[in-house]
């Protein structure tokens, strides 16, 4: 079973899948750097194009990085250095777990459609107006 690390390159990910990789593992940023999801748009493209699981690896530094990867639809994240080098590794591991859970739940809930313009969700008609 091949579990290859790769850059967040769409063509490379597709070639790895064609070669029989069991998963594709694009790097969020340089390994051990904690720089986070620098090129999340490329990872999103990979997620939409491949049929094998995508595990975002390397460079995840904080729980919001893990949440973003999961919100995009990643199957998992692989986190080591952010936990191992944290001031409180146990607390960071717990926080990463919560980030993963929040991101995955948000992905399954389905985000609202982005709008170019403001669009109030509260009713604008029939609302009593205070008279001074």
Can you put this structure into words, describing what you see?
The chain has helices at residues 10-18, 40-49, 63-72, 81-84, 89-109; strands spanning 5-6, 25-26, 55-57, 76-78. It is mostly helical and 132 residues long. It has a single domain (5-109), classed as Alpha-Beta Barrel (TIM Barrel), CATH 3.20.20. It has a two-stranded parallel sheet with strand order 1-2. It has a two-stranded parallel ribbon with strand order 3-4. Helix 3 (63-72) packs parallel to helix 5.
> What top-tier CATH class fits best?
Alpha Beta
Q: What order do the strands of the largest sheet run in, or round the barrel if closed?
A: 1-2
Distance between the termini: 73 Å
Query: What percentage of amino acids are in beta strands?
Result: 5-15%
Summed up, the domain count is 1
CATH architecture: Alpha-Beta Barrel
Q: From the alpha carbons, calculate the radius of gyration and give it in angstroms.
A: 19 Å
Helix content: 40-55%
CATH topology: TIM Barrel
In DSSP terms (H or I, runs of 4 or more residues), the helix count works out at 5
Structural class: mainly alpha
Sketch the topology as an H/E string, one letter per element.
Answer: EHEHEHEHH
Overall body shape: globular
Mean pLDDT over the full residue set: 88
Query: Poorly predicted ranges (pLDDT <50, ≥5 residues)?
Result: none
Fourth-level CATH superfamily = Aldolase class I
Number of strands: 4
What does the main sheet amount to? Answer: 2 strands, parallel
């Amino acid at each position: 079973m091949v579990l290859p690390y790769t850059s967040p390159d769409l063509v490379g990910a597709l070639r790895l899948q064609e070669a029989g990789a069991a998963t594709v593992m694009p790097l969020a940023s340089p390994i051990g750097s904690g720089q986070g999801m620098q090129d999340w748009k490329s990872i999103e493209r990979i997620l939409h194009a491949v049929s094998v699981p995508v595990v975002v690896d390397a460079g995840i530094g904080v729980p919001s990085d893990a949440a973003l990867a999961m919100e995009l639809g990643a199957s998992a994240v692989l986190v080591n250095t952010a936990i191992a080098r944290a001031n409180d590794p146990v607390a960071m591991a717990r926080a990463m777990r919560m980030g993963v859970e929040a991101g995955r739940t948000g992905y399954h809930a389905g985000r609202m459609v982005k709008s170019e313009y403001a669009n109030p969700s509260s009713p604008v008609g029939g609302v009593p107006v205070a008279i001074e």
